[in-house]
Amino acid sequence: MNAVALITGASRGIGRGIALELAKIGCDLTINFRSNESAAQQTVQTCVAAAKACGHSIRAEMFKADIAQSEDRRKLIAFAKSTFGRLDILVNNAGIAPEARADILDASEESFDRVLNTNAKGPYFLTQLVARWMIEQVNRAGDNGKAKPKIVTISSISAYTASPNRGEYCVAKAALSMLTPLFAARLAEYGINVYEIRPGIIDTDMTQAVKAKYDKLIHEGLTPIPRWGTPEDVGLAVVAIARDFMPFSTGQIIDVDGGFHVRRL
Ligand code: NAD
């Protein structure tokens, strides 16, 4: 039986990269998207083809839901339950940047609420729903070690790096970073490990607007590994978790950032 994964915001970018790497190891997938149905369809097709090329037969389904909306979160989980019957890995990936970068002295409450609702509140309560479901699964499976579900949250170096022209994004990612220790502490007794992946500068649509700025910074030595990260880099870290390669680690932060976090003199 294939392991089953649910990835939020997986129609493009890092979410799509994670879905693709999980497909290659034979996971069935729920591809959540908010608006772009044809991009989500493309993710589904690419994942099924990539799995096949690796010798796996997988089922990939897509489901439209805005993770910032309570009712949508409920429907997403109801869909995943009725479609696959169980969940082995939740990936909280969906996230947004502020619509416009604005100085912290001017930025609006509206933008703060929008970014916090999607980047922090949405994953927090989605994880709550999923955690309850995972506990039911573990209790059903008994203590034979068969059910070892996992939760992964994609945060950002912005959880600890100040960008005063997008403060609400930084505050949201810092808040999101508390999700992992909280759920790790609560779920360890059920054998459910919880991880945070902290990407650095990753080449996606989200970073296109600042491409020239980051090209220059990387060229000047911002990161010890002197290149942009890719969705595949993040996907491979999720694969390590999905494969249970870190069974005695929970509440762990995994930096996928080319060494950005290393202090240097
Ligand atoms: P992206 O904008 O290319 O993709 C984000 C996806 O999430 C989109 O498909 C979008 O539709 C979806 N999404 C947004 N709000 C949603 C909602 N309310 N409900 C459902 N889906 C929603 O961005 P990306 O670069 O792929 O980023 C993915 C995640 O990684 C985000 O959480 C982002 O904050 C984080 N991240 C990105 C970078 C980077 O450099 N690109 C770095 C660190 C962290």
CATH topology call: Rossmann fold
Instruction: Give helix % range.
Output: 40-55%
Extended strand count = 7
Strand coverage percent: 5-15%
Shape: globular
The CATH H-level superfamily is NAD(P)-binding Rossmann-like Domain
Oligomer: single chain
Whole-angstrom Rg: 18 Å
Bound molecules: nicotinamide-adenine-dinucleotide
What's the average pLDDT?
97
By secondary-structure content and strand pairing, the structural class works out as alpha/beta
From the N-terminal CA to the C-terminal CA, the straight-line distance is 50 Å
Task: Describe the largest sheet.
Answer: 7 strands, parallel
- Number of structural units classed as domains: 1
Write down the CATH class.
Alpha Beta
CATH architecture: 3-Layer(aba) Sandwich
pLDDT below 50 for ≥5 consecutive residues: which ranges? none
Strand order of the largest sheet: 3-2-1-4-5-6-7
Contiguous helical run count: 7
Q: What order do the helices and strands follow?
A: EHEHEHEHEHEHHE
What does this structure look like?
Strand 2 (28-33), helix 2 and strand 3 (60-64) form a beta-alpha-beta unit. The chain has 7 helices and 7 strands. The N and C termini lie far apart (50 Å). The chain has 265 residues and is α/β, with parallel strands linked by helices. It is globular and about 50 Å long. Nicotinamide-adenine-dinucleotide binds at residues 8-9, 11-15, 32, 34-35, 66-68, 93-96, 118, 122, 154, 156, 199, 201-202, 204-207. Nicotinamide-adenine-dinucleotide (NAD) is lined by residues 8-9, 11-15, 32, 34-35, 66-68, 93-96, 118, 122, 154, 156, 199, 201-202, 204-207.
